[in-house]
């Protein structure tokens, strides 16, 4: 017959071997020793519970022993990458350039970009972008339009806004556009955010071919006129007509060549439209009572104006109402008099 201490050791030793901690195993043995001194049905129930507990502990211990340690490199790979610093995010290129075109293609690209500038930094960023186009000779930038609205107005509801339109060579558009979101000197990064970007392409192959053909035809016609005017047997009247046709042909050639240069400029460069918008202020939560009190004066003025408008509109109807009341009084007297008779 085993004592209660010996029975507890039989429970504690297997539990410790299965990987269960010593304090937990001792608590399990103490519980079993206390219950063994009770009735027989409690001993049977305790035996089944202890067997189930030992089986679960053994399975847990096996899982802890079989599971291999996670390598350091795997742990580092599973960890999420650190967030990029605001300075690095501000320097990342965001502009999507137009696709490169072949020698036989004549495409004109127009880019539209909308930027959101925080705080009062919008005029400074607009001025920096405009001055860079005007002063940086390496960009070969052509300023087409620049507009800055300082806001204000009679009701102080107009916001600060700016617009800029430039024309740049193909290899300078991306660099100029990416510099628009870069922080200025002494400015924190992240004040400029790109809201929208779109690119429109127009095929100028047919206009370019038509203008080139017209220039060639006019040049051939002008050469024929000059050769005809060089003859010695030509009369004076014919010479005057040839001179007039020569001047007209020369004018048409110059006009066609101007169109040719305009088309070549549109093909060789890209147009960039930049719209600067202020960042909307963050509206803080206001107490409803405070909001009503702040707007009480406006509400009172509006209601007083409505009452005054109603009174003014009712003035013409006052004589009509008086006449109606008099007629009703007369009619009442007539009806009462007839009933009295």
What is the secondary structure topology, with strand pairs?
Elements lengths: L3 H14 L4 H15 L3 H27 L5 H7 L7 H6 L15 E11 L4 H14 L6 E8 L11 E9 L3 H6 L13 E12 L1 H25 L6 H33 E10 L9 H7 L1 H19 L2 H24 L1
Parallel strand pairs: 1-5
Antiparallel strand pairs: 1-4, 2-3, 3-5
Helix pairs in contact: 1-2, 1-3, 2-3, 8-9
What global shape is seen? flat
Assembly type: single chain
Series of secondary-structure elements, N-terminal to C-terminal: HHHHHEHEEHEHHEHHH
In round numbers, the mean pLDDT is 77
Strand content: 5-15%
Q: Compute the CA-based radius of gyration.
A: 47 Å
Spatial ordering of strands, largest sheet: 2-3-5-1-4
- Enumerate the spans where pLDDT stays under 50 for 5 or more consecutive residues: 15-20, 59-89
Q: Count of DSSP helices?
A: 12
Number of strands: 5
Query: What can be said about the biggest beta sheet?
Result: 5 strands, mixed
Structural class: alpha+beta
Termini distance? 132 Å
**Percent of residues in helical segments?**
55-70%
What would you note in describing this structure?
This protein has helices at about 5-15, 20-35, 40-65, 70-80, 85-90, 120-135, 175-180, 205-230, 235-270, 290-295, 295-315, 315-340, and strands at about 105-115, 140-150, 160-170, 190-205, 270-280. Strands 2-3-5-1-4 form a five-stranded mixed beta sheet. The protein starts with a helix and ends with a helix. Helix 1 (about 5-15) runs antiparallel to helix 2 (about 20-35) and helix 2 packs antiparallel against helix 3. The longest helix has about 35 residues, at about 235-270. The protein has about 350 residues and is an alpha+beta fold.
């Amino acid at each position: 017959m085993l004592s209660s201490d010996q029975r507890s050791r039989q429970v504690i030793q297997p539990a410790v071997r299965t990987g269960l901690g010593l304090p937990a195993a001792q608590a399990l043995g103490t519980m079993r020793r206390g219950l063994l001194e009770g009735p027989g049905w409690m001993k049977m129930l305790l035996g089944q519970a202890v067997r189930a507990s030992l089986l679960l502990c053994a399975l847990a211990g096996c899982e802890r022993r079989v599971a291999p340690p996670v390598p350091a490199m795997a742990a580092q790979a599973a960890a999420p990458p650190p967030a990029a610093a605001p300075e690095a995010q501000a320097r990342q290129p965001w502009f999507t350039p137009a696709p490169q075109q072949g020698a036989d293609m004549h495409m004109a690209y127009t880019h539209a970009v909308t930027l959101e500038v925080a705080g009062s930094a919008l005029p400074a960023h607009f001025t920096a972008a405009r001055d860079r186009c005007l002063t940086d000779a390496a960009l070969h930038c052509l300023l087409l339009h620049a507009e800055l609205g300082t806001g204000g107005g009679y009701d102080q509801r107009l916001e600060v806004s700016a617009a800029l339109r430039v024309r740049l060579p193909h290899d300078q558009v991306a660099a100029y556009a990416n510099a628009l979101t870069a922080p200025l000197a002494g400015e924190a990064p992240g004040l400029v955010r790109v809201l929208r970007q779109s690119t429109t392409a127009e095929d100028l192959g047919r206009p370019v071919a038509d203008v080139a053909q017209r220039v060639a035809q006019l040049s051939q016609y002008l050469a024929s006129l000059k050769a005809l005017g060089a003859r010695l047997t030509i009369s004076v009247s014919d010479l005057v007509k040839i001179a007039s046709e020569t001047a007209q042909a020369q004018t048409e050639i110059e006009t066609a060549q101007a169109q040719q240069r305009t088309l070549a400029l549109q093909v060789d460069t890209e147009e960039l439209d930049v719209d600067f918008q202020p960042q909307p202020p963050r509206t803080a939560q206001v107490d409803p009572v405070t909001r009503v009190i702040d707007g009480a004066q406006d509400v009172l003025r509006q209601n007083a104006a409505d009452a005054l408008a109603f009174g003014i509109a009712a003035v013409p109807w006052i004589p009509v109402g008086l006449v109606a009341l008099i007629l009703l009084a007369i009619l009442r007297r007539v009806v009462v008099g007839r009933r009295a008779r």
